[in-house]
Task: structure prediction
Amino acid sequence: MEPGTSTAADWPLDALRKAKGGTTVSVVLPARDEESTVGAIVSTIRDELSSLVDEILVVDSHSTDATAARAAEAGARVVHQDDVLPALPPLSGKGEALWKGLAASHGDLVVYIDADLRNFGSHFVTGLLGPLLANPRTQFVKGAYERPLRGRRGEGGRVTELVARPLLNLFWPELAGFAQPLGGEYAARRSVLERVPFVTEYGVEFGLLVDLLELVGLQAMAQVDLGSREHSHQSTAALGRMAGQIMLTAWSRLERQGRIVTSEPPATLLRQFNPETVTDVSVAERPPLASLIDVMEEDVA
Result:
């Protein structure tokens, strides 16, 4: 069975305003050194979607440039990754920023948007919100899009095609219908996101798909065609490290589901030859946020 698929054009703003009712919406942008793009994204959301979006939150993930300043100037609330839940030992990576963004935001619906998009339009947000506002049974919506590489169609998403998609087809074929399993644009109900763990590195999107399939089932998951997505691209060496983290994330899910049994954990050192380096690609996990909230509430009581 394929996930339900629609297009951003199927969800006009006026219809979404009517469907919103008392539901609150947070848009969360994890951002590291994205001063050239984050301000325009925030401004577009603020200017065009003020009647739909209640909160724009940028999570500054150890930026060394003016990312935080540009985001604040454009109208976002900015939090620094390590300042959220500061009693916890800090971790690194995109997944950590996403998890901290969930903890720091307040909306009933949470929309994640990467902060490096060069062709962002408000339809990214409205498209992702549409299935959630229209159908209470929908729990998670993933963005689908064309990902050109340096102007060439179909050339983007190299780790998706070489690593993530083969893994999904082999072990979780129900998820094979998601066009961009590693894409950074998706939305979900807070009540669901708080019940799944977040891998702290680049395996986070892969882990969320697999964990949400197990939690809510494919019938509660949808995708929306958002057109085209243009963003900065990483080096081959960086993509190699990303691939290692995704494979370790898949391995951990297979172990958790009892589909593989090993006496030793997988190796986490990745040797690369151009240039010659050895990199630790191990991944950590933050627990479901709801479990942490329950503990904090017990401590207060």
Remarks:
- Residues 35 and 69 are 8 Å apart (CA to CA).
- The mean pLDDT is 91.
